[in-house]
Design goal:
heterodimer; A: 574 residues; eleven-stranded mixed sheet; B: mainly alpha
Chain lengths: 574, 319
């Protein structure tokens, strides 16, 4: 029966998959292991380590993914897809306890590591131990924060106990941060010795591929793991992941020269991308995501003297007035930004701060005043608020001039966006000073540097943030009062706007105590609407993720905003 | 001479110490965070990032970090990379062959073509050849390598598809086939670098030759009845080459440290490529190692140049 199915699927394949179809919509064809040649991938950030738990960024998770697997991947719709797990535990199948405190993972039976040894519950238990060990300082240790214990029930069953009831039972062992490493290979390399582990550059895995060569920041090559559990996969005999100099080189390789089959994260100006994709060799792979490019409005005073700069107890001279904030929001032309800068390829206009999961995306914001571009109305709001234009055309009130410093990172796309927004804001009679800061500094937690996003020594700042999981609780915590950074807190906390609203805090508290998905979605939308209507942030662009490129004949790619680009590389084919 | 070399070597020790202290301080004070990639990732909270930075030794005061680092250097240990968690030396050793292969060949070719062109240009001054060589040299000097590089890529890789666009460091020359592959993938970067290096060198050789040609000793040689060829080759050239040799020797360190821009454009995984990626990743130990090695090579080849000077020019005596 299985054979018949395979044959018929094969026979249908050419007619169904021969024409260019929208990427990702098509079911993977039944393939023959090793029937394809080399799969050539290009990443413009080079992988430097293949142990995901010591990773320094997405690039490392991606490079490890063909080799190592989590218990479950996070699928394109945000729902877990079983990988090493036999099935995804849910309350329905008894895998998640009714109090939401324990999760029991049943592992696939008979899975082998590429060195021939058995994959068992011990490896999962060990992976947790490795991640949680303070001296090892794993970058994935945040996943273990709510975990009380991980215990082995039997050889193929693992029980995760959380410290408290959780709404997200999949917060450990899933997605890029949840890859399982082999106990045998890493058990002697914890703590200070973690850096000496040979497995850091040559991990043994359970995935469809195993490593043949790794040169940091240069090239990673893989070949088929002959012990991989699905005998018909993978299709490609070898995989090469090459580091290019920059995103435009990657784009050229996949779209113009055909030197690559898949190129990660094509962050190049959309106009260039459009021109290159007319080359005919490749096409873009995109998917709606939770990435929102937003403007943050500072509630504290960045010009306060001395140590009081942007301290939460200071008040911004004009952004503390809702009408002024509204005026700025209404003078922000997100459609113009989308057209001019993103060219409709890599993002579209949005007025929501929560994007990516349809059930949780608000439809109310479209009708809000603050979401409509209306310069006349914005000017009127400022007139009514008592901000009169002076002889120099700049509005002032009580000796305070309406001057804003608008900062973001050094990035061609961002500077173009800044220019569009500045032009409109200046029509309001506002003096706008643009500032761009190196991303390494802007996003750093360097307490000594005045230019970090957390210190926010400016009036407006812009960047993209996203929810790393399809549940928005952790993301929405970025606007609660407890998260406000200050000098005393060493500028820690995600509430860069210094927004403090008891109503929002109460909604958040309600969210943390709610288990019902429908109710959670409703609360999420409510919180989104509050943040937008109160002009805490001005959402500008809903960005796509991934924004990658693929050769026209490459099949099986399912663009996924929640997990690695290579999450299903085992089912890619040509 | 031996004493001179010894003295110069001893002087270079404090020099390198000062250089190391300056480099270390500048990089330690420079902004940047090896964990910056995770700054907005809620799955990597600030306390985790701090813990990771502490595990990299970044929580210690500056002078202790410097003492540890310099202590390692003295014993030949450049520490471990923040990004790979492996020894920095391994990374450099892995990349050196690529750099040497491309830059070394380019440098040799530039020297081999620049000297004859410079000589002919000087001897046949204001001839058609001289004008041609001068024009080419000015093009080579004034057009930046990133432009010639991109131009070659667009013409030969994108349009004509003669050469591969991405350099493959895995090619090991073992037979004619792999040799061809290696030549095909290195021909564009080598051309770019040769044009740039040769242009500068040609001008220099020409200028030196022109300075020596009207000298009295040349007239004497000609008056003795020597043919023009031995006059040029044996007398003018030898004297003109003395400063050129110095220039060539001083350029050698750049072969080891890589051509930052050219390596970036062609994705050649050499030392320059490593340096740029490490700067972006705030992988300070790697940046320090490369910049310090470069400083050491410059100091060393300055000495080599001075010694060569004495060997080539009997008038110069060090004591």
């Amino acid at each position: 029966m299985a054979a018949t199915l395979a044959v018929s699927a094969c026979a249908q394949q050419p007619s169904g998959g021969g024409a260019t179809t929208a990427p990702g919509t098509q079911a993977p064809a039944t393939t023959t292991r090793g029937a394809g040649g080399e799969l050539r991938l290009v990443w413009w950030q080079g992988p430097t380590i293949l142990n995901p738990h010591l990773s320094q960024g997405t690039k490392d998770y991606d490079a490890a993914r063909p080799i190592l697997e989590p218990l479950a991947a996070i699928g394109p719709d945000g729902k877990p897809v079983a990988m090493l797990a036999e099935e995804v535990p849910t309350q329905a199948n008894g895998g998640v306890s009714s109090d939401g405190k324990t999760v029991t993972w049943k592992l696939k039976k008979g899975v082998k590591w590429s060195d021939g040894s058995d994959f068992t519950a011990d490896d999962v238990v060990f992976t947790h131990k490795y991640m949680a060990d303070a001296a090892t300082a794993a970058t994935t240790s945040g996943n273990t924060k709510n975990v009380e214990s991980v215990t082995k029930v039997d050889a193929t069953t693992v029980k995760v106990t959380f410290k408290a009831a959780t709404v997200n039972p999949y917060q450990i062992f899933t997605g890029p941060q949840g890859m399982i490493i082999q106990q045998k290979q890493f058990q002697d390399f914890m703590g200070a010795k973690a850096k000496d582990a040979p497995g850091n550059t040559a991990p043994i895995g359970t995935g469809a591929y195993k490593l043949t060569q790794f040169k940091s920041n240069d090239v990673v090559t893989y070949e088929i793991n002959t012990l991989y559990r699905d005998a018909s996969k993978p299709y490609f005999k070898t995989v090469t992941l090459k580091t290019t100099a920059a995103a435009d080189a990657s784009a050229r390789a996949v779209l113009q020269t055909g030197d690559a089959d898949y190129a990660w994260n094509l962050q190049v100006p959309a106009a260039t991308l459009k021109q290159m994709s007319e080359g005919g060799r490749g096409e873009l792979v995109t998917s709606p995501s939770s990435n929102v490019e937003r403007l943050l409005i500072n509630r504290a005073d960045p010009r306060a003297p001395g140590d009081a700069r942007s301290e939460p107890n200071t008040k911004h001279p004009f952004f503390s007035d809702l009408n002024v904030r509204k005026a700025f929001a209404m003078a922000t032309n997100r459609k113009a930004v989308a057209d001019a800068v993103y060219a409709g390829l890599t993002g579209g206009p949005t007025c929501n701060i929560v994007e990516g999961v349809p059930a949780m995306t608000s439809k109310n914001t479209a009708n809000m005043d603050v979401c409509k571009f209306d310069l006349a109305q914005a000017n009127k709001l400022l007139d009514d608020a008592g901000w009169a234009k002076g002889a120099d055309g700049i509005r002032a009130k009580g000796g305070v001039k309406m001057e804003v410093v608008f900062q973001t990172t050094v990035n061609a796309v961002r500077q173009a966006t800044q220019a569009v927004i500045k032009a409109d804001w200046e029509k309001l009679g506002v003096k706008v000073e643009l500032k761009s800061i190196d991303a390494g500094v802007f996003f750093s937690s360097d307490v000594a540097n005045p230019d970090t996003a957390a210190k926010f020594f400016a009036d407006v700042e812009m960047f993209t943030n996203n929810s790393s999981e399809p549940d928005y609780q952790v993301y929405l915590a970025n606007w609660i009062t407890d998260e406000i950074p200050s000098k005393a807190k060493q500028w820690r906390g995600g509430n860069y706007e210094r927004y403090s609203n008891p109503a929002y805090d109460a909604l958040f508290k309600e969210l943390t105590g709610t288990m019902d998905p429908a109710k959670r979605a409703e609360l999420t939308i409510k919180m989104n609407d509050l943040l937008v209507s109160d002009v805490v942030v001005i959402p500008v662009i809903a960005r796509t993720q991934p924004t990658s490129g693929k050769a026209k004949d490459l099949k099986g790619i399912k663009p996924n905003p929640w997990d690695s680009d290579l999450w299903n590389v085992f089912e890619w084919s040509k | 001479m031996g004493r001179y070399i010894l003295r110069r070597l001893l002087i270079s020790i404090p020099t390198l110490f000062v250089i190391s202290a300056v480099l270390f301080t500048i990089l330690a004070l420079a902004p940047g965070d090896p964990m910056a990639q995770f700054a907005l990732n809620p799955e990597v909270p600030p306390e985790v990032r701090e813990r990771v930075k502490a595990s990299l030794g970044l929580d210690q005061p500056l002078h202790i970090r410097y003492a540890k680092w310099i202590g390692g250097i003295v014993t030949g240990d450049f520490g471990f990379s923040f990004a790979t968690r492996g020894p920095v030396t391994d990374l450099i050793v892995q990349r050196l062959p690529n750099t040497l292969l491309v830059l070394g060949v380019a440098y040799t070719i530039s020297v081999l073509i620049a000297i004859p062109i410079g000589i002919i240009s000087a001897v046949k001054r204001y001839s058609l050849f001289d004008y041609g060589a001068t024009t080419l040299a000015f093009v080579g000097i004034s057009v930046p390598t990133f432009f010639t590089g991109l131009l070659l890529i667009i013409v030969f890789a994108v349009k004509l598809k003669w050469f591969p666009f991405l350099y493959d460091s895995r090619v090991v020359v073992s037979d004619l086939n792999t040799l061809g592959q290696q030549i095909r993938q290195s021909i564009m970067p080598i051309t770019v670098l040769t044009l740039f290096n040769a242009a500068q060198l040609t001008r220099y050789v020409r200028a030196e030759m022109l300075e020596n040609l009207p000298q009295d000793y040349v007239r004497t040689a000609r008056a003795k009845g020597l043919h023009e060829r031995p006059v040029i080759a044996r007398h003018v050239l030898r004297n003109s080459l003395i400063p050129v040799v110095t220039l060539i020797a001083l350029g050698v360190p750049t072969i080891f440290t890589g051509a930052i821009i050219t390596e970036q454009i062609f994705a050649i995984p050499g030392i320059g490529h490593l340096l740029v990626k490490s700067i972006f990743n705030t992988d300070t130990p790697v940046v320090l190692a490369i910049t310090f090695l470069f400083a050491a090579l410059v100091v060393f080849f300055n000495l080599v140049a001075d010694v060569l000077y004495a060997v080539l020019d009997p008038r110069i005596r060090y004591s």
